[in-house]
Write a structure and sequence with these properties.
The complex is a heterodimer. By secondary structure, chain A is mainly beta. Chain A is built from no helices and eleven strands. By secondary structure, chain B is mainly beta. In chain B, about 0% of the residues lie in helices and about 55% in strands. Chain B contains no helices and eleven strands. In chain B, strand 4 and strand 5 form a beta hairpin. Chain B is globular. In chain B, about 35% of the residues are buried. Classes of the chains: A mainly beta, B mainly beta. The interface between A and B is medium-sized, with 27 and 27 residues.
Chain lengths: ~120, ~120
């Protein structure tokens, strides 16, 4: 199974809502990633978890809160988002993240709209 | 800020044509260069990961080369087919500091192959 799954596919939320994005992989990968992609822009790294510990936080605002409850699951908790946070949120995993010498497997993304 | 540049931004070719695109990246502190294919409504899919200067990789009709001294990689598609239509992204990883383990993506080259 080389699939990374993400739920939900689409999410519309108000600025006062709290919601969560979920990502799952069963490839035994030990590194998991959250990326944000705005229209016509490349994916931008937000967070990296390595062996269930947060190893990179790209100065992401605290209204985004990642969580890695186990080696197969990655969540992104959202609270008090702004309309400019509307984007495609991609999850990825790799065997590990030692210098990114391993290919990343991406999920299909969650399309988030903040109203 | 790590600049990863791809050219051209978009490309239209006829079925059967061979084509190539370029990814430019900082030549200092290089660690790895990735190529991904991203078809509309699908997940980005890894094509190649290259780490050594002079690396050449091939997968079917697609191949890639790497020159880390001058900071560029070429992706070649031989005999393009309509199913090759996609956005091709390169991503660069450098070897040190707080960027270790992080991929920085280029803007992508959008390839359209006309039957």
């Amino acid at each position: 199974d080389t699939e990374v799954t993400q739920t939900p596919k689409h999410l519309v939320m108000g600025m006062t809502n709290k919601k969560s994005l979920k990502c799952e992989q069963h490839m035994g990968h030990r590194a998991m990633y959250w990326y944000k992609q705005k229209a016509k822009k490349p994916p931008e790294l937000m967070f990296v978890y390595s062996y269930e510990k947060l190893s990179i936080n790209e100065s992401v605002p605290s209204r985004f809160s990642p969580e890695c409850p186990n080696s197969s699951l990655l969540n992104l908790h959202l609270h008090a988002l702004q309309p400019e946070d509307s984007a495609l949120y991609l999850c990825a995993s790799s065997q590990n993240n030692l210098g990114s010498s391993y290919e990343q497997y991406f999920g299909p993304g969650t399309r988030l709209t903040v109203t | 800020i790590l600049n990863v540049e791809q050219s051209p931004q978009s490309l239209h070719v006829q079925e059967g044509d061979s084509t190539n695109f370029t990814c430019s990246f900082p030549s200092s502190n290089f660690y790895a260069l990735h190529w991904y294919r991203w078809e509309t409504a699908k997940s980005p899919e890894a094509l190649f990961v290259m780490t050594l200067n002079g690396d050449e990789k091939k997968k079917g009709r697609i191949s890639a080369t790497l020159n880390t001294k001058e900071g560029y990689s070429y992706l070649y598609i031989k005999g393009s087919q309509p199913e090759d239509s996609a956005t091709y992204l390169c991503a660069y990883s450098n070897a040190g500091g707080t960027s270790y383990g992080k991929l920085t993506f280029g803007q992508g080259t959008i390839l359209t192959v006309h039957p």
